[in-house]
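Recall the central idea of this unit: under ordinary conditions, the amino acid sequence of a chain determines the structure it adopts. In this exercise we apply that idea directly, starting from the sequence alone.
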Amino acid sequence: MTAVNISIIIPLLNEAESLTELANWIDTVSKENDLSYEIIMIDDGSSDNSWNVIENLVKNNPCIRGIKFRRNYGKSAALHCGFQAARGEIVITMDADLQDNPEEIPGLYKMIQEEKYDLVSGWKKKRYDNTLTKNIPSRLFNWTARIFSGIKLHDFNCGLKAYRGDVVKAIEVYGEMHRYIPIIAKKAGFRKIGEKVVQHRKRKFGTSKFGFERFINGYLDLLSISFISRFGKRPMHFFGLLGTLMFILGFIMAAIVGINKLITISHNLPARLVTDSPYFFIALTAMIIGTQLFMVGFLGELVSRNSPERNVYYIEKEI
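Accordingly, the structure predicted from this sequence is:
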């Protein structure tokens, strides 16, 4: 297999109307800038005519490859599959709805090739989305991601990104974690992450595939990736430590209750039953919770060391 300058990965779902225009536009931009390229279109279980369009594009352009999933697995699975299939020195991802401008490709390529960035994320500074339902929640979401990760990006979820080839081979994108690829890359040791202002175009065909729930899921995914990146392979370090501290705290409280009763008896004073003290039950609860947390950490350790790959998807066709 011959390496190319750029692999352009395009995950898609029901975007038949825009694919031909997008492929021709990428071809024009690449030839104008003397860039060898391949386009990898991943059909994520489309129910429209998308796959037939891809088949026709492949017949007419040897630089285009197509991968068809048996059903809809989500954007993260499509990107992961594309990352594994990519042969380019630099990998660029973009959406199929023509809202990402192919004219940005040379600029992204230059930042990776000449400025030696590991990853460059697009920033749609001027958007054409509805302010109430997308723009304001997106800003809040990105602000939170910056605080959690320490990565100074304005638009974590922008589909238009560029990567060095070894970055995409070293990271794993699963679930709905495509929103946090910069964070995943940073955790994998790729720390030179940049940003480029890119043009956001109005949607020409179809409708958005994402609703308001993506922001709720986004925050949950952010918490997940923050936890997994630190404790995914060593859950005992989190649950075991927390459980041990809880158990010790409960044991100390129980000991204080017991010692207090012994001192009272040694002075021939009337002593209440240990079970009459609320601190006894608090101590007992803390010890039980501590034991359970420790066991969760132990079981998590067993699962993490014997778990299969998280990315599971079935390819129906590849051309």
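The chain has a mean pLDDT of 85.
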